[in-house]
Amino acid sequence: MSAIEQIKAAVRDVPNFPKPPVIFKDITPILQQPELFRGAVDLLCDRHRRQKPDAIVGIDARGFIFAGAVAYQLGVGFVPVRKKGKLPYKTVEASYESEYGRETLSMHVDAIKPGARVVIVDDVLATGGTASTAAALVEKLGGQVNECDFLIELKFLNGAEKLRKYPIFAPIAY
Ligand code: AMP
After folding, report:
1. Positions of the chain with pLDDT lower than 70, given as ranges
2. Cystine design at 122: which of 12, 59, 104, 151 (Cβ 3.0–4.6 Å)?
3. Which top CATH class is 50-173?
4. Active site residue 99
């Protein structure tokens, strides 16, 4: 099996979490196997090694697990996008409708330097609302979204359509 196939085989489907009819893609079995965790981080990193972004933007909460490791590996900064009310300093905010209701995301006002080229990283691309809102926050601060990277894309939810302004990379698709 290729590295991608091994990582895909470790993803656990959890039906009806957090509520029906969602089939939750649980990535924690990947994290328990060091060679798979490293392989997943490498998949997200390798494409940026020659032309490094200025920062990796990671999305609350499982996105942080991969995005932090990617930023560390590339030797670039890490910017957290968090749910409203979690960041301590002054923030910019943007809202969207998710599968579960209205969500607001926030980012520190000084997190992105004007003109900075960033890559957004999350574990799963579903409807695209989360990543497109994170991208809007980056652009609000004058940054440029070079690419949106996910370990997993749920193609049947058409998230790529909401992100059509940006290149997308997702090695595992359903
Ligand atoms: P969306 O905004 O619909 O693209 O949802 C993406 C966010 O919700 C990501 O941060 C994912 O971690 C999470 N998410 C949405 N649907 C799923 C799913 N079926 N399995 C795992 N995570 C999901």
Report:
1. none
2. 59
3. alpha beta
4. yes
Atom of ligand 1 nearest to the CA of 130: 2
**Rounded (10°) CA dihedral 26, 32, 35, 40:** 30
Q: 125 C-alpha vs ligand 1 centroid, how far in Å?
A: 6
The 10s digit of each residue's pLDDT in 19-62 is 999 999 999 999 999 999 999 999 999 999 999 999 999 999 99
Which residue among 35, 97, 99, 161 is the active-site one? 99
> Of all atoms in ligand 1, which is nearest to the CA of residue 128?
4
Q: How far apart are CA 106 and CA 109, in angstroms?
A: 9
Establish whether residue 174 lines the binding site of ligand 1, counting it when its CB lies within 6 angstroms of any ligand atom.
Answer: no
Domain ranges of the chain: 50-173
Contact between 58 and 66 under an 8 Å Cβ cutoff? The reply is yes
Mean pLDDT across the chain = 97
Ligand 1 atom nearest the C-alpha of 123 is: 12
For residue 104, count other CB atoms closer than 10 A to its CB: 14
